[in-house]
Amino acid sequence: MKIIFLTTILLSKNCNGGEVASQCFIDALRHNGHKVSVVGYLRKGDTLEHNPQDTFVVDERYTETSKSKFDALIWLFFSFLKGLPYSSAKYYSHTYINLVNKLLATEDYDIIIIDHAQLGWIERFIDTKIKLIFIAHNVEHQIYEDNFKKVGNLLSKFIYQREAVLIRVLEERLLCISEQVWTLTEHDSKYLDQLGRLGKTKTFAIPPNLTNLQHKAMTKCFDIGLLGSWSWKANIEALQWFLESVYPYLPTHLSIHIAGKGADWLRGKYPNVTYRGVVPDAQEFMAQAKVVAIPTLSGSGIQIKTLDAIGSGSLIVATPIAMRGISHPPSTITVTENPEKFAQYLVSAAALSSTDHYCDDAKNWYCTRRDEFLQTIDDAIQDISTGLPKSKIKSQKSKVLITPQMN
């Protein structure tokens, strides 16, 4: 089948979890024999991480408010002018609309996938007679409602409340017009089902990426590793909790390495903490740790960082919320939200001399989850294809198992 996949940001070198999750769906669809055309923006200065074949770049732009300078003011003005959420306005462009309509006019697509609620506005400009799938990475309006409750500044409260109301409108519209709604967690699936009252949601257990490390002999280089984009509010909160509540219980002889952009203030602040900044390979970094700490305290949707940590084969100590959307995890993971126990589990894991059987368990868990993910994708497309003419239903299954890439 021919599928056009409309997303926000294409997977590139400086990717985040949402882009990795999107690429996982794209890879699975292609593995299952479908022709997938991908449309989205590329971060300014980045390069595509995957083969650009059938990938269409709308243009290059910064989408993070902190880097966008005057563009952020333009997006804010435009969001009020068009009645859009701010998080949607920064992806709205006539260039995007024209490119999509050009592709729809030249290719006979069977399915349109709208990836992220922030792209919900585009359905007004495309042929909605084509079967539509909406991928909801999170229940977006809930995130903004939570932020509204946490902030004290009146202007911030107004912005978050407006964002929550408008993004909910887009979500409800997509729930109404979509043939299927794909989610990453059971929680989101149940919530959106109740919101739409249409029973269209399907949950997909995204697998971690293991391909990068399958043929590498990894040496443990430090005791505890933490990874994240430390400019994000939820990640800052997690890092602060770790340093303020967990770190005091850790012996100072343990080496702690922290990787990811946005935490330069850490340099030289703690005697046994090394700040690495952006690392070339996130999963390799986690594989070099004796134990990975994931101290997440808030957020929605599945945490790709947790999946990649599992894929690294290292032992993991995580908070319950870091495990959202991950059922029946392997034995490599210990879960607690108690700071003292969190520290104790880290110390115990770092002291283990061999973790080979844990690593094997993680690999087996990964293979099972990958196969289930591919099958769930196949089942969903088969369900949607029942309403298409038989001449359009084509299956060109690959005989070789190709692992979804999640770099």
CATH class of the largest domain: Alpha Beta
According to DSSP, the number of beta strands is: 13
Q: What does the largest sheet look like?
A: 7 strands, parallel
Derived structural class: alpha/beta
Strand arrangement in the largest pleated sheet: 3-2-1-4-5-6-7
Shape type? globular
Determine the strand fraction and express it as a percent band.
15-25%
Give, in order, the helices and strands.
EHEEHHHHEEHHEHEEHEEHEHEEHH
Helix content: 40-55%
Distance between the termini: 26 Å
Number of domains: 2
Can you identify the CATH superfamily of the largest domain?
Glycogen Phosphorylase B
What does the radius of gyration come to? Answer: 21 Å
Mean pLDDT: 85
CATH topology of the largest domain: Rossmann fold
Tally of separate helices: 13
Low-confidence stretches: 390-407
Could you give a quick summary of the protein structure above?
The protein has about 400 residues and is α/β, with parallel strands linked by helices.
Describe this structure as you would to a colleague:
By secondary structure, the protein is α/β, with parallel strands linked by helices. The protein folds into 2 domains: 2-204, Glycogen Phosphorylase B (Rossmann fold); 211-358, 3-Layer(aba) Sandwich (Rossmann fold), CATH 3.40.50. The chain has 13 helices and 13 strands. The chain has helices at residues 17-31, 65-68, 70-82, 86-89, 94-106, 140-150, 154-177, 186-196, 233-246, 282-287, 304-312, 339-351, 356-385; strands at residues 2-9, 35-42, 55-60, 111-115, 131-136, 180-183, 201-203, 222-227, 256-259, 273-277, 289-294, 315-318, 333-335. It has a 7-stranded parallel β-sheet with strand order 3-2-1-4-5-6-7, with helices on both faces. A 6-stranded parallel β-sheet has the order 10-9-8-11-12-13, with helices on both faces. Strand 11, helix 11 (304-312) and strand 12 form a beta-alpha-beta unit. Helix 1 packs across helix 13 (356-385). The longest helix is centred in the last third of the chain and has 30 residues, at 356-385.
